[in-house]
Design a protein that fits this description.
7 helices; 24% helix; six-stranded mixed sheet; 27% strand; globular; alpha+beta; seven-stranded mixed sheet; Deoxyribonuclease I, Chain A
Length: 249
């Protein structure tokens, strides 16, 4: 089984690259964040491509946020949201239930410059934890753009970003809490010393210089972790300011 998570930063602009990624990797499931399309757009060829069927959770605001799951196999059930009206208006969570596992795809809020959205992100973080408690942890896979670099190894310039969005003490302590609850950061468990990033700024040739952040994750508990074959970051794929992360189990 192969699953890809990717913040595509716009399905319209990234759809061709998505198809290229699917053809090259042949995953069973693709989880996308920041699709930026509305329900009216999903009839324009986005619902299906190749052998994949798409399932979408849209933001109310046009051209903003949103998540999707493309799957070769029809899930038993697909649900949207965190049961919180304020948060769910931004289309940040989708769940696909399969016979052997539940797959949860999240797009966490960015705290923004001057941390103006940090209170909203803290609210989302708590709703996320409450949401996770509804699932059997032994069959749960969590993925998505968490918009936080956990440790100094997870970004190129930690000293310069100590108080910046995505690397504040508040956000990092929350990540500590999440991992202390029993979930594992799969990539970091497999590769404790590996320096790789999943997001780069669009400014100052950051991607060319590899001045990046690792903010896109796969998570699971100890029992499910025993099934993992690999989790790899593939920065050769372009089309977004993020790159795909690929899980095999």
């Amino acid at each position: 089984m192969k699953i890809i998570t990717w913040n595509i930063n716009g399905l319209r602009s990234g759809f061709e690259k998505l198809q290229e990624l699917a053809a090259a990797e042949r995953p069973d499931i693709i989880c996308l964040q920041e699709i930026k399309i509305s329900p009216d757009d999903t009839h324009d060829g986005y619902k299906k491509f190749a052998s994949y069927t798409g399932y979408f959770c849209h933001a109310q605001k046009k051209g903003y946020s949103g998540v999707a799951i493309y799957s070769l196999t029809k899930p038993n059930q697909v649900t949207c949201g965190l049961d919180n009206a304020e948060i769910d208006a931004e289309g940040r969570a989708i769940v696909a239930h399969y016979d052997d596992f539940d797959l949860v795809n999240y797009y966490f809020p960015h705290s923004n410059r001057e941390l103006s959205r940090l209170p909203f992100k803290e609210k989302f973080n708590q709703a996320f934890l409450d949401h996770l408690n509804k699932f059997d942890q032994n069959r749960l896979i969590v993925c998505g753009d968490l918009n936080v670099a956990h440790e100094e190894i997870d970004l190129a310039r930690p000293k310069d970003n100590r108080k910046n969005a995505g690397f504040t003490d508040i956000e990092r302590r929350w990540m500590d809490k999440l991992l202390d609850s029993g979930l594992k950061d799969i990539f970091r468990e497999l590769y404790p010393d590996k320096v790789q990033y999943t997001w780069w700024s669009n400014f100052f040739h950051a991607r060319d210089k590899n001045i990046g952040w690792r903010i896109d994750y796969f998570l699971c508990n100890e029992k499910f972790f025993s099934k993992i074959k690999d989790c790899r970051i593939e920065n050769k794929y372009l089309g977004s300011d993020h790159c795909p992360v690929i899980l095999e189990f």
